[in-house]
Amino acid sequence: MAAKILIIDDDTSLRRVLEYNLQAEGYEVLTAADGETGLAIFAECSPDLVITDLKMPGMNGFQVLATIKERSPTTLVIVITAFAAVDTAIEAMKLGAYDYITKPFNRDQLKLVVKKALDLRGLSEENRLLREELTERAEFRHIIGISRGMEQVFAIVRKVADTDATVLITGESGTGKEQVARAIHSLSSRRASPFVPINCAAIPRDLLESELFGHVKGAFTGAIRDKVGKFQSADGGTLFLDEVGDLPIDLQPKLLRALQEKTVEPVGGNAEQKLDVRVVAATNMDLETAMDKGNFRDDLYYRLSIIPIHLPPLRERLDDITLLIKHFTAKHGGAGVTFAPEVLEVMKRYPWPGNVRELENTVERLLIMRNSDSIGIDDLPARGG
Ligand SMILES: Nc1ncnc2c1ncn2[C@@H]1O[C@H](COP(=O)(O)OP(=O)(O)OP(=O)(O)O)[C@@H](O)[C@H]1O
Ligand SMILES: [Mg+2]
To answer: Which of 10, 46, 195, 225 is most buried by a 10 A CB count?
Structure first.
């Protein structure tokens, strides 16, 4: 049976375009020109999905959303917003909207967003918990991205999250690797168990082995009692091996063994421990070069990168910059602050070697240093970024 979609929008031509495009995809489409009518049809026909404009005379989209979520928490709602007002869409998502479409919209984007929502609903009908949907929204809400590159990342994350496959996340510093690793954990059925991060570059070689695998009392001078390693702490959950490219070559076979046999042996011990740990690794190093130089073992590389996820540098996803700026402005207490178009232009031309982290720091600094709530070109630091 065709999925039923209700469209609520006061703009007649936009309503028709949406109706036409969604009917062409084989959906059954109902339409309403205002919020009240929309809710009446909603009560009558229980659609699978509601698409509502946010800004409408009379009852607005936020009220429609709130009412629908109250009557039927599992119904998915997609909101429509002008591109310039994307922050209102994010507001709506905090109130339970599943996703948003910007005007003017592009047909492929529309189809994709609708299909994604209906697929998710299909899953929930096969009795995946509503809770999962909510967790997914909560997790992805912190990862901002509408660029094609980030859409691809989200798609892979959704697909692999609930498997035990090892994931290798690559990307320059500040591109969001740790954030993606946490999203994978939160979207998996391991989410109630620990997410344990360890930074392989930050721990001296001599301590790293016992940090990872634990040690037994007396294993070496100073080992005055048994120590539990990160692997053991992550039992049932996810171990995040950050900067895995910095793992010393002599420890690599031991990690490989842990991945393959799912057992670890604490330093100085002679009993293997069986563990259930999902490993997600990240690096900003080019591991292929490290392999050529003999600093990283091929066998470990192939074992880690069963599912590779590459985060593109920010300069290759300019579409995300405006949205990220809005997100960080809100995050750092700048609600109501606006940026002049020339400022956004300059920000899009700057290459952002420190990627999203640098952008966040820049926004934070601009907010602190601002003279008024409209940030203009003169507020930018002299270096031009
Ligand atoms: N897509 C995004 N949306 C919102 N915030 C982001 C995004 N990507 C990164 N950030 C923010 O940027 C900062 C850096 O992200 P993260 O620590 O995940 O990067 P990383 O790739 O692990 O960096 P490094 O290689 O330096 O460890 C964090 O504060 C994170 O919240
Ligand atoms: Mg990191």
So the answer is: 195
